[in-house]
Write a structure and sequence with these properties.
137 residues, alpha/beta, Rossmann fold, globular
Length: 137
C-alpha cells in the first residue's frame, strides 16, 4: 500500500514514515509539508491512502474542512486518515463525506494509526469504485 503523509512538522513526517515503514505492507509514497508539495505528490504517485492533519497549516489559504473538501474533489477515490490533535466531537460528521475513513488522535497509541491506515487501504482495494469510498468507523 502506497501511503502519502502530509503535515507541516518534519518530526511528524519522519515519525509516521518510520513507523509505517516497519510494516511490509506499507510503502511511503512521499511526504508533503505544504499543499504545493502535496498536490505534486498526489498527481505523480499512485497513493492508496493519505495521512494528513487537516489543522496543520500546510496551505495558508486552505485548511481544515476546506482543505479536505478540495482534496476529495480532486482525488475522490483517495481514502484519508486524519492524524490530528483536533478533539472536536463533531469532527467525524463534518468529514465523513470528504473521503475521511478514520480519525486518529496524535495522542493515541501508535497501533491505532497503523490499524486505521491498514483499514483505509483495504477498503479502497476491496471497493475500487470512487463513489463507494466511505469507511468511517
Amino acid at each position: 500500500m502506497n501511503v502519502a503523509v502530509a503535515d507541516m512538522h518534519p518530526a511528524v513526517l519522519a515519525g509516521v514514515g518510520v513507523v509505517l515503514s516497519e510494516f511490509e505492507r506499507f510503502d511511503i509514497a512521499g511526504t508533503a509539508r505544504n499543499s504545493t508539495e502535496l498536490d505534486a505528490l498526489l498527481s505523480t504517485m499512485q497513493c492508496d491512502v493519505l495521512v494528513i492533519d487537516h489543522l496543520a497549516r500546510i496551505d495558508s489559504d486552505l485548511e481544515g474542512v476546506t482543505l479536505l473538501a478540495d482534496l476529495h474533489r480532486r482525488y475522490p477515490a483517495l481514502p484519508i486518515v486524519l492524524f490530528t490533535t483536533d478533539d472536536d466531537p463533531n469532527l467525524s460528521s463534518k468529514t465523513s463525506r470528504l473521503g475521511v475513513c478514520s480519525i486518529v488522535q496524535k495522542s493515541d497509541e501508535i497501533g491505532r494509526l497503523i490499524e486505521a491506515v491498514g483499514d483505509a487501504a483495504q477498503t479502497i482495494i476491496a471497493l475500487r469504485r470512487p463513489s463507494d469510498v466511505f469507511c468511517m468507523h
